């Protein structure tokens, strides 16, 4: 066979294949030589279909659009032509037209899964999530047991912020494909997001059974038990972890949290002895864990008791080790400050810091001086606090807490307000979502008589931290200056309730 003949044969076969593929989408009334349609028109239709299909295959979507529109003018009720035209418009990025013709194809053949799938995708792209959900629901009904439309439906519920429905679909998917860990992980994520912790515990337990890397999952299980107040299973979970891996610091942390919150002091002491007896945790890590509990005691009363116990135990065991005593005293000073024993913290820190004058640039020394500055500030020793804040900032100019606190002290004195504003603006620029820093800047504007700016900043601060009475108090004063008595009274009432709440917590501690 000659090359021209061969090419002609191949082209002929391609046209036949294209026609066969397209004819699957079209109803027989157009392509079968119906008595109502002359054979010549049927032949012409076939040629137009093939021509339009080839244009789409070549990427000439504009040409394909023109061809399909001609076909539709002759056959307006042919769903397949609407479908094909929709796909061509979609390829051109013309979503409105793609949506229009896709809707028509579904209206003409509502049970066609290809038409439904295309329209669902276009609805998603145009952010019509309710319509996309409706279409995927129809696909699920048409294809029971098929995970693909179910997955799409679940994701559509997610983007539509219908979390409970998304979870229900993911659970259905998990039943259809029980070995799929990706789906089970998604179920777990949704359960956690919806605070369905008991369900999440069951899902996590199932994941642990299936997974090779069980350590992280088991840690998460222990945390869930803690979060739901199930201390006995939490203790059991964390103990199993530390028995298998004594170097796993997060498991020790969880174990101490569980035993302390369960109220079992003897168990806590036993666990603490095991912790300090292990050689798989370094001394610095042991001190670091005590420091973590000390820092956390500022917002969690349960952390204070284990922190004091850790410090006492390490003093007993490691006081002869070079440098350890100073580290422990700094941790103790921070713990005393956070638990309201400010004078004791001040006395301890003033006692240990002079002996460290030659090491002023060490991180630990700066941390100790920062706590001492906070002690001076809290006790009203203004000159000492300003002097120490300034000394710290000369060594560590990026310490935003010290920047903010110095600005606040200066504002409290009513002096150097321009300097205070510059400092506070530096802190806010670095951390614009920090309620404390916004409060300081707002209060400085208040002191400068710029009450509208003050109120604007303080409103942002109270949204970010609605539990701090000082912020609501400052905002009430700003509202008063602006003549807004109603809002001022609301903030005063809020301040009163927050202070009462803090007093109750303090008495409990």
Could you give a quick summary of the protein structure above?
This protein has helices at residues 3-23, 28-31, 39-58, 61-74, 79-92, 95-108, 113-125, 129-142, 147-159, 163-176, 181-193, 197-210, 214-227, 231-244, 249-261, 265-277, 283-296, 304-318, 324-338, 342-352, 363-378, 382-395, 400-413, 417-430, 435-447, 451-464, 469-481, 485-508. The protein has 509 residues and is mainly α.
**Range of helix content:** over 70%
Q: How many beta strands in the DSSP annotation?
A: 0
Query: What is the global morphology?
Result: extended
Estimated structural class: mainly alpha
Provide the low-confidence segments as ranges: 1-41
| Amino-to-carboxy terminus distance | 98 Å
Description of the molecule:
- It is extended, with a radius of gyration of 35 Å.
- The chain has a domain at 282-397: Tetratricopeptide repeat domain (Serine Threonine Protein Phosphatase 5, Tetratricopeptide repeat), CATH 1.25.40.
- Helix 7 (113-125) runs antiparallel to helix 8 (129-142) and helix 18 packs antiparallel against helix 19 (324-338).
- The chain is 78% helix and 0% strand.
- The chain has 28 helices and no strands.
- With 509 residues, it is mostly helical.
- The model is unreliable at 1-41 (pLDDT under 50).
- The protein starts with a helix and ends with a helix.
- It has helices spanning 3-23, 28-31, 39-58, 61-74, 79-92, 95-108, 113-125, 129-142, 147-159, 163-176, 181-193, 197-210, 214-227, 231-244, 249-261, 265-277, 283-296, 304-318, 324-338, 342-352, 363-378, 382-395, 400-413, 417-430, 435-447, 451-464, 469-481, 485-508.
């Amino acid at each position: 066979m000659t090359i021209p003949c061969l090419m002609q044969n191949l082209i002929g076969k391609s046209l036949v294949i294209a026609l066969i593929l397209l004819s699957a989408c079209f109803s027989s009334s157009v392509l079968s030589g119906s008595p109502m349609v002359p054979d010549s028109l049927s032949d012409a239709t076939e040629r137009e279909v093939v021509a339009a299909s080839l244009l789409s295959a070549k990427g000439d979507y504009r040409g394909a659009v023109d061809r399909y529109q001609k076909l539709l003018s002759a056959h307006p009720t042919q769903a397949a032509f609407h479908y094909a035209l929709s796909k061509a418009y979609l390829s051109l990025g013309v979503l409105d037209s793609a949506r229009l013709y896709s809707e028509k194809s579904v209206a003409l053949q509502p049970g066609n899964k290809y038409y439904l799938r295309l329209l669902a995708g276009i609805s998603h792209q145009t952010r019509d999530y309710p319509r996309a959900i409706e279409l995927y629901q129809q696909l699920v009904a048409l294809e029971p047991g098929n995970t693909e439309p179910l997955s799409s439906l679940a994701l559509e519920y997610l983007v539509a912020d219908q979390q409970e429905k998304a979870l229900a679909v993911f659970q259905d998917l998990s039943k259809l494909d029980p070995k799929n860990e990706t789906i089970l992980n998604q179920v777990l994520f949704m359960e956690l997001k919806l605070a369905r912790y008991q369900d999440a515990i069951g899902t996590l337990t199932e994941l642990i059974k299936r997974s090779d890397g069980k350590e992280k999952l088991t840690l998460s299980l222990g945390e869930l038990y803690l979060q739901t107040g199930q201390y006995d299973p939490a203790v059991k979970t964390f103990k199993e972890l530390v028995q298998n891996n004594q170097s796993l610091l997060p498991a020790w942390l969880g174990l101490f949290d569980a035993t302390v919150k369960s109220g079992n002091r003897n168990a806590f002491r036993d666990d603490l002895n095991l912790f300090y007896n292990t050689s798989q945790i370094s001394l610095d890590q042991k001190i670091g864990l005590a420091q973590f509990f000390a820092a956390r005691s500022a917002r969690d009363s349960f952390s204070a008791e284990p922190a004091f116990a850790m410090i006492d135990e390490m003093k007993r065991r490691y006081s002869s080790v070079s440098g350890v005593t100073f580290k422990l005293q700094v941790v103790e000073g921070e713990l005393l400050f956070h638990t309201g024993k400010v004078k004791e913290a001040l006395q301890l820190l003033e006692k240990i810091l002079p002996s460290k004058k030659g090491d002023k640039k060490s991180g630990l020394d700066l941390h100790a001086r920062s706590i001492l500055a906070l002690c001076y500030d809290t006790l009203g020793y203004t000159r000492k606090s300003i002097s120490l804040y300034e000394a710290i900032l000369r060594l560590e100019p990026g310490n935003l807490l010290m920047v903010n606190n110095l600005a606040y002290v200066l504002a409290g004195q009513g002096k150097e307000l321009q300097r205070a504003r510059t400092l506070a603006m530096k802190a806010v620029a670095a951390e614009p979502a920090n309620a404390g820093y916004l409060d300081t800047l707002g209060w400085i504007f208040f002191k400068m008589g710029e009450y509208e700016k003050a109120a604007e900043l303080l409103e942002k601060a109270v949204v970010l931290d609605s539990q701090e009475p000082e912020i609501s108090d400052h905002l009430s004063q700003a509202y008063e200056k602006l003549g807004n008595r109603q809002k001022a009274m609301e903030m005063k009432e809020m301040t009163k309730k927050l202070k009462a709440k803090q007093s109750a917590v303090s008495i409990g501690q």
